[in-house]
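Weekly modeling sync, notes
Attendees: S.R. (lead), two postdocs, one rotation student

Agenda item 3: backlog of single-chain predictions. S.R. asked that every request posted to the team notebook include the full sequence so nobody has to chase files. The rotation student volunteered to paste the first one in as an example of the format we agreed on. Action items at the bottom.

Example entry:
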Amino acid sequence: MIANPRLSFVKTASAPCRDSGSSGRTLVVTDRVGNLTQTGVLTVGGTSSFTTSATDATITLTNTGNLLTGAASLNTSGTGGNASLINAKATVLGASNVGGNLTVVRSAISPRPQR
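Predicted structure, as returned to the notebook:
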């Protein structure tokens, strides 16, 4: 786990978040230029917030190994700003504003016990 009480990322170029991320507390990700996607597993012990600023940009966090423990907030703008989240445990949705469709699914994979 990362010791920082709050871990923030601001994406300013069009590319997916490539690495797995782990935060023991809070994760805040803002994509200012396009779609927010992932290629690795996200593990967050506290709250998480994912935001796209561009009109109709999407959030796609669909790795079945994601383990978001605290409330997860998803924010997009525009009617095409869809958000999809797969989480390995029951998801608590935080305050969210999704301009398009919202899809939240619990994966069939059981999370590993926390140590």
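Discussion: group reviewed the output briefly. Residues 1-7, 11-20 have pLDDT under 50 and may be disordered.
Action items: rotation student to repeat for the remaining queue; S.R. to check formatting next week.
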